[in-house]
Amino acid sequence: MKVRRIVANVATQNVAAAEGFYRDVLGLDRLMDHSWIVTYGSDEQMRVQIGFASQGGSGTPVPDLSIEVDDLDAALDEVRRAGIPIEYGPAVEPWGVRRFYIRDPLWQTGQHPGPPAAMRSADGPASQRRFIFSEAPPPGPPTGSPGDPSARRDLHYGWR
After folding, report:
1. Tell me, what DSSP letter sits at residue 73?
2. Whole-angstrom Cα distance, residue 93 to residue 153?
3. What is the separation of C-alpha 3 from the centre of its chain, rounded to a whole number of angstroms?
4. pLDDT over 50 (residue 68)
5. Dihedral of the alpha carbons of 146, 45, 62, 108, in degrees to the nearest 10
6. What is the CATH number of domain 15-135?
7. Beta strand ranges found along 24-108 (DSSP E)
8. pTM listed for this prediction
9. Sequence spans of domains, the chain
10. Which residue from 43, 97, 110, 155 has the least number of CB within 10 angstroms?
11. DSSP character string of 91-159
12. Contact 87/103 with Cβ under 8 angstroms?
């Protein structure tokens, strides 16, 4: 078996409200619309990847969704233009990634019913779901070793 893709499905009571963020802010295309599920995406080719973390790095909570962009300043401008508050950053992390956090706009506006109590995290209800926007570090070999937390590495693609 070969995994071809992994899709994040976000529960919401108002599927149409997602368009304001995913299409209008992120610039994704509507790929499928069955009214009960709408899928947004782009023609970009990506590697299959899923992450597991005990923290988000630099004392931040683990983000629920990582969005890698080619121009973090442009993404930051779009997020600010949409009136979405920045929760963390922008910051250049010790491992070379430049990033910022926001909270999921659908959950902020009450478009999601919220999680069952068993799914609430220690740092607050899961309704505080966080997204991280980041740019990969400049090209070049990583520094240090995989166990060295100060080593520069690419957050999204591992060691080069």
Report:
1. H
2. 10
3. 21
4. yes
5. 170
6. 3.10.180.10
7. 29-33, 38-41, 65-68, 86-92, 98-103
8. 0.68
9. 15-135
10. 43
11. EE-TTS-EEEEEE-HHHHTT-S----GGG-BTTB-GGG-EEEEEEPPPSS---S-TT-TTS--BTTTB-
12. yes
